[in-house]
Amino acid sequence: MKINRVEQGTAEWKKIRLGIPTASWFHTIITPGGKASENRERKKYIYRLVAERLLQQPMPDSFVNGWMERGNDLEGAAARAFAKRFKLDLADGGFVTTNDYRVGCSPDRLVMKRSRPCEGLEIKVPSPWFHLANLCEGPGDKYKAQVQGQLLIGEFEAVHFYSWNPNLPDYHLVTLRDERYIRTLETLLGVFLDELDQTEDYVRRKGPVATLAEAPLTGHFPWGDP
């Protein structure tokens, strides 16, 4: 495990993640049941990462609404509430990678024990109704690939899921390592990475690629209209 001490969301953080599969997208590689995900979803993610590698430009995520912006603004307050309630020392998550730097993840915080990062923390400050859904029903298995991916990449003992609202009871879930699932994920990641590299090589053999920084400001992309 390697921890890159960069502030999440910054230009430096975006640059260091370029073209690297990250845990938040592992649902396109493995299902919650431990099977290979639908081929179409995996392919779409491969093309996204290859585009980042070729153009040296992060591909935009899905739209951000007001509740997501509010969640980002309140993340620090939620982290402080978590640390106070559970009496744990936290550090910024940065960008965590495997030793070979081929895959990574961005836990919101790291739980420190004896000055070592031993656990990850995923903080959610969603809309009140999504928070109540977490509180009453739990998050379900939709985050399983991401959380087990963090456990794989960071070599963590556990990952905490913490849903917080300043005016409502909070919700806390601890996920431990599922070694069988992690081994399957590791195998599927190896296949994914090989296909990612092969796709990049295939495109590069087709001809030169202009990065966005080199593109003429004509109103059109040099590789064709989007």
Structural Rg: 19 Å
Shape field: globular
Domain module tally: 1
The name of the CATH architecture is Alpha-Beta Complex
Number of strands: 8
Number of helices: 6
Helix content: 40-55%
Distance between the termini: 37 Å
| Mean pLDDT across every amino acid position | 90
- SSE sequence, one letter per element: EHHHEEEEEHHEEH
For this structure, what is the CATH class? Alpha Beta
Structural class: alpha+beta
Give me the CATH fold name: Lambda Exonuclease, Chain A
Describe, in plain words, how this protein is organized in 3D.
With 226 residues, the chain is α+β, with helices and mostly antiparallel strands. It has helices at 11-16, 39-55, 66-86, 128-137, 144-154, 179-205; strands spanning 2-4, 89-92, 95-97, 104-105, 109-113, 116-124, 158-163, 171-176. A five-stranded mixed beta sheet has the order 2-5-6-7-8. A three-stranded antiparallel beta sheet has the order 1-3-4, with helices on one face. A hairpin with a 2-residue loop joins strand 5 (109-113) and strand 6 (116-124). Helix 5 packs across helix 6. The longest helix is centred in the C-terminal third of the chain and has 27 residues, at 179-205. The chain starts with a strand and ends in a 21-residue tail after the last helix. Mean pLDDT is 90; it is low at 216-226.
